[in-house]
Design a protein that fits this description.
104 residues, alpha+beta, Alpha-Beta Plaits, four-stranded antiparallel sheet, 2 helices, globular
Amino acid sequence: MNIFVGNLSYQAVDEDLREAFAAFGTVTSATVIVDRITGKSRGFGFVEMPNDEEARRAIQALNDSLLKGRPIKVNEARPREERPRREGGFGRGHGGGGRRSDRF
């Protein structure tokens, strides 16, 4: 089961999640999500536990518990929604400049 962990302290690291959830069973992976540019925590993460019963016990026990001084929110992760691909660049296709040539 994939588990969402929110309201994480910005000091929390992968190993903190792994330790907290390992008390309830086998943890396949534990990841704190970090910003690609700054490398700092985004305040949430995911834990993967192969045994659903152990995962449900962990969710129940750890939701609203303190981790690194903050009450964490723990629940089963929802499937990721497909979003349209974003265009990169500098306003491509969105006009720009603020001046219209047909005014004069």
